Amino acid sequence: MEAVDFGYLFSRFCHFYRMTDDQVLAMPVRRFWLMNANINRIQAEGDLRQLVLLTTAQAADGDVREKQRQALVAEMGNVMVMNRREELDRSGLELLRAMSKGLM
């Protein structure tokens, strides 16, 4: 390697990780280079996901689209599990209503 455009690398790092120059300068040098080395990998992961989604969306086979949808749902996992059997807390609801009207 003959030369490194550190200004570009530094600006790219700040942009990608949404950090200020002061935040980046305060971090250990090894952490900077580790995180910098992973920018392309992280972007490639997103690009591959988009490629898969675009290819799947254009697939004529509905089964292919459904399998991809199921794979993404499984990857996302359960964000929230609700117990539908719980009854509405009427007294709590009335308390919230009174609070919103400034009665409490």
Provide a compact summary of the structure.
The protein is mainly alpha-helical and 104 residues long. It contains six helices and no strands. The protein is flat, with a radius of gyration of 25 Å.
Description:
- The chain is built from six helices and no strands.
- The model has no long low-confidence stretch (mean pLDDT 89).
- It has 104 residues and is mainly alpha-helical.
- It is flat and about 70 Å long.
Number of helices: 6
Strand content range: under 5%
Query: What gap, in angstroms, lies between the N and C termini?
Result: 70 Å
Poorly predicted regions: none
Percent of residues in helices = over 70%
Main pleated-sheet profile? none
Q: What is the number of E strands?
A: 0
Q: Rg to the nearest angstrom?
A: 25 Å
From the structure above, extract its key features.
about 100 residues, about 70% helix
